[in-house]
């Protein structure tokens, strides 16, 4: 462990105070040596360069603390309500209307609570800029490295998921089955768009695109719901759609867990919360954002899953836009392009900021407002995007890619890590003290859910991937054939 929470908190505050309130009596060169890393080598010979570096540092710090709770809500919506909503109808078809609704609402409410725990940790330990820093608070260097590796892998998988969705979208818009265009081309185009949109390193800037993103996903989902509803009304008639309140017959353990993990994936917003809150000018306002986001998510996800399943029946596809019919699905995918790429690029930005900030922790380069900062930033996000493209082409099936991501990583970031942080970092008094009892129960439920998803979901993902390849229901890796 990394010491008691009280000592850690005091150390964090001491570090913050030492950064924000330097002793004016100190020699400038000493201050540069302690606070600005690379600046030290210029102090004796080129003091004007050192002053410029200090100015850049001040400008960079101000630039990365402009996010208010309303923009944070938009950023969280953009990061969260994207791929998740497209997998829900298929999950409902597997689990049945009753279980699908219970799981969707229940996991959503639990995600709001655990996200609140994450926010409390950030408020108590303001130096925790990323989830990996919380890992350090819990388990020292080992926790930092373990959670940091999980953090990077999860975000790269998310970018890969968006790259895959972009490939599916372009393939359906152009109808590559008829035109004969290689799907690898659209995979490359998707990767390039994701890269370009990830260039702005500040979340406050990306929030502007978030409004377009939100309108995009709501319009795409709305169009799909209306189109499938109209189709069902014409034939076979709404009353004749064979949806069921109960799980499908012969439901296997693997199929059930793939569906559950797809719903878990939809509530993965807490993974980026430390990073987003680190840019807020008033971090305590985070509660407004997570409640607004959580309730919006639960409403959209549950309605999307239930309505499209009720209109299409057990043959509903994943992503759900594929179920709207040939012409309407093309239009829906066209409308959904902003959310596919803007949401995906935010994950590139988050993982890029984590790696870049870690490499240049004691340097002005971390603020990405110098030539060296911009050069290293562009190289980094390019590498991340290329790796994501390779993942998308290596696992070319939507639901299983989401399931792998959910099982290995989202299960921890959203469900079983926050309870550990509550016990070790922010709990006040004994676990079963009267004021802690409800919280203890909620944290225990969240922890159990996370562990069950980790074990059961990982096993199910492996089984389903092997089954798909064996039966030939998916294309080969790096294929020109249509995907989705």
UniProtKB/TrEMBL annotation:
The record's Gene Ontology cellular component field reads: membrane
Which UniProt key words apply to this protein?
Membrane, Transmembrane, Transmembrane helix
Any transmembrane segments, and where? Answer: 72-89, 95-114, 146-170, 176-199, 206-230, 250-269, 290-311, 331-355, 376-398, 404-426, 438-459
Main location (coarse class): membrane
Identify its membrane topology class: Multi-pass membrane protein
**Every Amino acid transporter transmembrane domain range:** 66-462
Against InterPro entries, the record matches this protein to: AA_transpt_TM
The cellular location(s) given in this protein's UniProt record come to: Membrane
Transmembrane helix in keyword set: yes
Question: Is Membrane a UniProt keyword of this protein?
Answer: yes
Please give the name of this protein: Amino acid transporter transmembrane domain-containing protein
